[in-house]
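note to self: dont lose this again. the chain is below, predicted strucutre after it. 91 aa total, dont forget to put it in the shared folder this time
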Amino acid sequence: MGRGGIRQNGRLPRMIRMAMDVEAVMRAALVEAGYGPDAVGSALPRIMRILQAEDVRLEVGRPLSRKEREYVRLQLEIGLSVPEIVAALKR
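---
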């Protein structure tokens, strides 16, 4: 199948599995730190977007301008993946 789909062996692509692992670790760390379900539920999506934005910066290989950071933030909010955003920035 194409990028982002389920592989023929029924496993999720590596990037999706890693993101799920990071999210699980972050959730566990927040719970262990004493945050309740409501706080974790509202903070976790923002934390994940921050980490994804940093992934974009690392993939691009240079500091992003203010305009580019805003673009990345908006693209992450609408659900684009890190590779899609990096490809758009490199055009």
